[in-house]
Amino acid sequence: MRSGDGTVVPLRREELARVAEIEAQVFPEPLDLAALSALWDIPGVHYLAIREDGELAAYFGFDVHGPIAHVISNATDPRFRRRGYGARILQEAEPIARRMGARWFLGEVRASNEPQRRVLSRIGWGEIGRCPHFFGNGEDAYVVFRLFAEGTIP
Is the pLDDT of residue 113 over 60? Predict the structure, then answer.
């Protein structure tokens, strides 16, 4: 492994093309490079990465609006799954979001994405409810949240 592999670090802009490729592999309605580039330029948007052997293994994007850090997307390259990267990047994003003024994460998970729902539950996220026909293809979403623990700002 190279130095820094397996640790959570800021995503580099030049990695957005790889993010778009992973999105296309894992999401029914992926963000393309143009959408990702537009998001990148919005104040309050932050992307984190985990690399393994120099390759992007996982990423997490969120945007902060006052006390809310809204999840844009969280994915692991299928070649790097089952290593705990998805959970780790979410957990390590919390103090970063707190420093940006957020007090909780809020997001949506496809009803069919049982693995993500299990990971989120295991690391302390809750489900607020189910939104019928939330996604463009008509699939329902679970609204998920994670209240940040008090006193965890490093």
Answer: yes
Query: Is residue 153 one of the residues assigned to a domain?
Result: no
Q: Tokens at residue 129, please?
A: 């409810």
Measure the CA–CA gap between 132 and 39, rounded to whole angstroms.
Answer: 26
Instruction: Return d(Cα 38, Cα 120) in angstroms, integer.
Output: 27
Mean pLDDT of 56-83: 96
Q: Which residues contact 143 (CB under 8 A, 6 or more apart)?
A: 106, 107, 108, 127, 128, 129, 130, 131
Rounded to an integer, what distance in angstroms lies between the CA atom of residue 95 and that of residue 83? 22
Give the CATH number for residue 126: 3.40.630.30
Say yes or no to pLDDT of 34 above 90: yes
**pTM exceeds 0.70 for this model:** yes
